[in-house]
Amino acid sequence: MAQSPTGDNLPLRQYSIQYQPSPSPLTSQASPITSPPPESASSIPLSQVDTESAASLSWKDVTVSFEQRSSSPQVVLDGVAGYAEPYRMLTIMGPSQSGKSTLLRALSGRLCRKAKYQGDIRINGRRQQLTYGTSTFLTPDDEVLPDSLTVKEHLILSAFLRLPSNLPRKEKLAVAEHVMSEMGLTELAYRYVRKCPHKGISGGERRLVNLAVELLIGPSLIYFDDAFKGLEGASVLSLLIKLKGLARGGATVIMCTEHVSSQVYELLDDLCLLSNGKMVFFGDNIAAVEHFSTAGFPCPPNHNPSDHFLYTIGAEFEKLRAPFLYVQDAEKAEAFAKEDHHQIVNFLSASYQSSDFNAALVCKVNTLVKKKGGVLVNRIKRPASRSEFFTLSYRSLLNTTRALGFYWIRILLSFLYMLSIGTIFLRLDHSKSSIEARAACIFLALEGMIYLSVGGVPYMYNEVKMHVREMVNCHYGVANFVVANSIASLPFLLLISLVPLCSMYFLAGLHSGALKFIYFVVNLYLSLIVSESLMMAISCIVPNAYTGMILGSCVQVLFMLVGGYVRHDNNLPKAFWKYPSSYISFHAHSLRGMFQNEFLGSRYGGHTGAYIVYGEYNFPASPGKWWSLLILAGMAIFYRTLSVVLIRLSYRVRSLTRTCIATGKT
């Protein structure tokens, strides 16, 4: 493997994760907000700081509200101000439903369309749109990784997906190696990214892998929503040290969390406290303790400041506040314990507005607005669409090959199922009594094979969910993902169509002609492709894999009922069942083609094949069996195209659900 390049050999800014701790709260003196002095080049632990991509973010009077049908608009953020700069990490903290995630999404430009936004957000003193590679947004809610890949494989393939096509292969591999080393993932390089006690990695390590993928292109702005959700102990500390290392390396890091331990709190830099959409404090972590003490809410000795803030401004602790609220004055403590949560928040917010900390904040924000910096750019260009397509195809093929339960077990079950049908309908003759048996054999073989595709919904759901997460940070296009996923499935579907079918076709004694057998295989193959495409489209609209399996089963059964075997075509009620259900059911087109292929041109007990197909089973005479194949191919293309549309809508709907329906959730 190529060695990690240094200096100018690296095609993007090198982040170093070497962490130098901030002064301890025990030895430092609290002071109002001051601009962190720039570190000298020798003290910055990275090879070269890219000044063109440095980002100073400032905002003031940020107000976000959502329309309510039955009442006045709900204000989620109310006049919030602040800033974030390189070399210091900003932590947005507060109780649930305080507006943390809403503020983070407002700063990253990811608010939903229904949110009404007011305020002034600037990057380097300018109003500008974020372009490719300048920012990244991470959230544990969308933490989905390809479980069949190792950490190293995932990072290398992500490098090929995100770095420019004209960058040599060795340099892409070197970038992946460098990021993996800096994030401390070298020892996990050959472990699978799935959660597994032996060969997998932990939840904290998975979060580091997600972060490492985003660092491949060196973003200047890193937004991390609910960074420590689901993590404990060493995992929290490890992630925090990596994030602080990125900030020390020149990135602008903004994260939000509800609560941290006392050890983690000592490592924080700047702090923004929110409650009920109001800003209670903005400054460094030590100054926050001083501000609460000045306002009459001193943190008890040997007590976690984060806990103290949460107990004081958290609505969920309103009825339990008395045991936790530490106020030196007994009468004042009793009065505050009886006060409403909103009154305490309003008091603390007003106290902050009149403090020196707020005056320093206003001065700092105004300075950043007046100081016009450069336009935020990233030298990294998106790879060519063709490069994205081939990389995605290889990744999908690797995933499906290693996913034991997706195709390999399905192939085994299909073989056993077809073998059972072949032995049940063993050696059918050409007598009149065999007509019904042949029809049942074809029907059961087709419907059983199609129905087994429902088992692939969990895998497809994870694939779609992973793509939606990657689409948030513009990894690649939707069309490339859908086409690559489709191509990767083709060889496995051909294997499923051919191997199990041979065991049934010849045991049952279906039509022995070579062309008849080839048509049967092609028909089944196209039917499985359509079924897979339909299941992918369903996976794009369901909230979880379990719901997708239920919905997929219902759709398949519905299409089976109007396929022409359970109820003949001319006997179906015309409203809904015949028009349009029987026409959009791919089961009907596939089954009609198989019946035409099996019976036409043969005689069974004095009955011609035409009489059996068109008279006894009442299939329409047109289209012919070859046209049925074209219709199936067209349906496969239609459902894959529908998947592209639904994935785009899914991204918008999930973003809308996450931001709007929550109406200010954290």
TrEMBL record:
UniProt entry tagged with the keyword Transmembrane: yes
GO molecular function annotation: ABC-type transporter activity; ATP binding; ATP hydrolysis activity; transmembrane transporter activity
Coiled-coil intervals: none
Domain ABC transporter residue range list: 57-301
Gene Ontology biological-process entries: transmembrane transport
Cell compartment(s), UniProt: Membrane
Key word Membrane present: yes
Main location group: membrane
SUPFAM superfamilies found in the cross-reference section: P-loop containing nucleoside triphosphate hydrolases (SSF52540)
Region (Disordered): 1-47
Keywords (A to Z) from UniProt: ATP-binding, Membrane, Nucleotide-binding, Transmembrane, Transmembrane helix, Transport
Membrane topology designation: Multi-pass membrane protein
GO cellular component: plasma membrane
Membrane spanning residue stretches: 407-428, 440-461, 481-508, 517-539, 545-566, 626-647
Comp. bias (Polar residues): 15-33
Family: Belongs to the ABC transporter superfamily. ABCG family. Eye pigment precursor importer (TC 3.A.1.204) subfamily.
Stated name of the protein: ATP-binding cassette transporter
